[in-house]
Specification:
10-stranded parallel beta sheet, 11-stranded mixed beta sheet, 348 residues, alpha/beta, UDP N-Acetylglucosamine Acyltransferase, domain 1, homotrimer, 18% helix
């Protein structure tokens, strides 16, 4: 797919400065510009790149006035960033779409397959499963009995969904995601061994949730582990049984949420954060990477850091002071000595 | 499946208070009660829920006397909690069981398949594999050559077992578990590159071990990585080469154990705990979430916290003191000033 | 496969002390010696094991002179360690090699399969894929369209490679690895929801890289996520979009590298280390387990520890001082009291 500057400018309702017939076939960042690629300049901080970029076309804001000559053809638009995002989506949407149902998939007769759904090779779909319209079930996916998958859901290769779980519309699960494995519930026995507690609940994932590769969401002991609308979860995250994640909350990679904890809406957790079980985290809580939270957070919109996590600014001050601890010990010991000396002097 | 209060009371050797013909078809927590569900009340802390629960039937202890009217039918038993657990297991056991060997699996001729074993679609079973009675090999599982799988083992979809590993009876591996991938062994070369050290050992997993989704247990360089009887390991855990995990030890999600370390029996590690390589951890050691252990723990039954981890209570005191560090610095500096002033005064 | 002491000594250019016809069929560590196994003694620290090992043959350095009788047959060589490594590799290389293309794999017609390549059961290989000579594609692997796989690459069962990624020669990916899933990029919207930013880049993995089980390497937003020649990455590691890993860098399990960060060459990170996004880490940086790095590291060859990480020795001193914090608080409070008393005394 190749597009001329003119065509792109038309689509964006922009103006070409330079060669209207300049052609691009891919997109790049302005600092990594390459011939045949389209880039954009929005942040003034990156302006110096535009004078040397090898990108063929650069989208810029209407009011951009170059200081010197620019090798690339420019397209001036109202908002360079959002115009570029539009082109990115157009580019993505023009990629050939997977379709059809592979003869090499194993699909139970009782499965209801929505119109336009794709099912790849060696996928296994169990009994009484319902799959929405235009859903994409990639190769080697496993879907247990009685699972429901919404319209336009995308399950990348190797996703495994245990029985009875429910996924909404526009849910995207990346390769290796496991939904609905047993929660970690064992009753300690008098002899030191453990007895498994059956996990008869399920997992419910609402619309527009996206989950990264190899992340695990365990099924509830009873009831449901719930991930609400629009939540975005990165790779290798652990969501334990009976957890509830609020709408539009965002977790970076390797976060772990222990059992029965309830996370509010619009929260944002950095990588490797750990949250204890049976607590609740208020809406809009932001937690710095690697922090640990052991108790409920009740006030909304706080920014937390540390393990145990508390107000991020206070933590940062303490963390800086931590570095001077060896020095603190020395100072205290010299204070003690001086004080002793003073006392001695006074008693003389 | 629907059951009447009468039938359940008969099974539990209990007494119905209310409507004997009340019917339930699922189970729930008393605080999340729903019509048609069976709940239980054991902990007095939850008693207030029983007066408003929508559960149709509630199992209670024999000596429970309500303060006011209860909408649900009650079943009085000796021990409400263990009776409920019994019903939970009955419910679980009545679910249809997977059985038969799929024609879509690829099974080497030299594989010995135990009586009653199930093998799902697109599973691959290598040469000279021995699979126990009633074992369940779900779809898309891979079992390498010379692997042994015990009776009643359950390998959920997508489990991968490298060659020569040995699994005992009643072992349960959840989806995406990888057993026997190469240990991480590379010899540094003079030019800064690394030379792979062949990993010719295997993994041995004893009876009644359960391992959560996407957890990895690497094969030994030589000899075996060993997980002993009854250990329970959560999702996304890393067990490195030549590690040994003692009987009935329990690890929460995202724990990592580095190479050649030996963990005692009846240990309990919280989520995201990290243990260094080539050390040993005494029996009954409990380690708080996110803690890190760098040196061997020699005394049994300690509770540890922090990184590096030490006695949990001492750590907690220090962690509280940590918060006041900026204050400590201020106090020290004002002490220094006051002392200087005093000295000056005295020398006047 | 059984080998006599004589045959092994010939191969290693060594000398047999004891029974030339002694036979071994496997290898073991000297401290875990077992009959029929070959062990080695190189480090004098382990010498006491040689007098009691059950190993049948032990490789020792030329100059080794036993203090007392040794039950095992010895083979004296120039360098016991490297001779043993040689045998280990020989042993490994003699294992039967996978070969052939399974009729149960699904391979697009437009796929170019190199000479001697192996493709296992239920593997899926997309359109316009190029697979190198002698590459091994194990069962249940997924390879998306337009992927390139180098010569002698090994993709263990269940590896998933999204479209357009590029793998060099001698790359080894263990079971469950996911290469090229979407980077975690979402633009916040005024209503608190998130809008997905298409991830149109790819992943490039250079020659001789090895990646452990269930590790994830996400595709770039634009351009490439790059893992350079000879890097070794353990299990359950997270490499985010647009990250670059330098040559011969080594990451232990559960490390996480956030987006757009650049790691130098010959770095070494312990388990569970976390590195923030959009920073760069100098060549030869060593980072202790569980440490967190929030800012760029500019000087080469430093050893760092802590979160936030800084000079490891300084950190260790501070960590020791941390333990005495409750004591520090007490001392400060008693200093304050004594000082107050002194002042009072002086003012009297």
């Amino acid at each position: 797919m190749e597009f001329t500057a003119e065509l792109i400018a038309d689509f964006l309702n922009g103006e070409v400065i330079g060669d209207k017939s300049a052609k691009v076939s891919t997109m790049c960042k302005i600092e990594q510009g390459e011939p045949g690629a389209l880039a954009f300049l929005s942040n003034a901080k990156y302006e110096h790149y535009i004078y040397q970029t090898k990108a063929t076309i650069v989208i810029v804001n209407k009011d951009f006035e170059p200081d010197k000559e620019i090798p690339a053809t420019l397209i001036k638009v109202e908002n360079a960033y959002s115009s570029f995002a539009k082109i990115l989506e157009l580019y993505q949407s023009m990629k050939p779409q997977k379709s059809g149902v592979s003869a090499l998939a194993s699909i139970a007769e009782s499965c209801e397959l929505g119109e336009g759904a794709y099912v790849g090779e060696f996928a296994v779909i169990g009994g009484n499963v319902r799959i929405g319209k235009n859903a994409k079930i990639y190769p080697q996916v496993y879907i247990g009995n009685h699972v429901v998958i919404g319209d336009n859901a995308v399950l990348y290769p190797g996703v495994k969904i245990y029985e009875e779980c429910v996924l909404g519309d526009h849910v995207t699960l990346h390769a290796g995601v496991v939904i609905g494995a047993d929660g970690f519930g064992f009753a300690p026995q008098p002899d030191g061994s453990y007895h498994k507690i059956p996990q008869i609940g399920n997992v419910v994932i609402e619309d527009w949730v996206e989950i990264g590769a190899n992340t695990c969401v365990d099924r509830a002991t009873m009831g449901s582990t719930i991930i609400k609308k629009g939540a975005k979860i990165d790779d290798l995250v652990m969501i334990a049984h009976n957890v509830q994640i609020g709408e539009h909350s965002v977790f970076s990679a390797q976060v772990g949420i222990a059992g029965s904890t309830k996370i509010g809406r619009n929260c944002m957790f950095g990588g490797q954060v750990g949250i204890a079980g049976h607590i609740s985290i208020a809406d809009g809580t932001q937690i710095a990477s690697q922090s640990g939270v052991a108790n409920s957070i009740k006030a909304d919109n706080q920014t937390l850091m540390g393990a145990p996590a508390y107000d991020a600014r206070s933590y940062q001050r303490a963390a800086i002071a931590f570095k001077s601890l060896p020095d603190v010990l020395k100072k205290i010991s010299s204070l003690e000595k001086e004080l002793a000396r003073l006392k001695e002097e006074m008693n003389r």
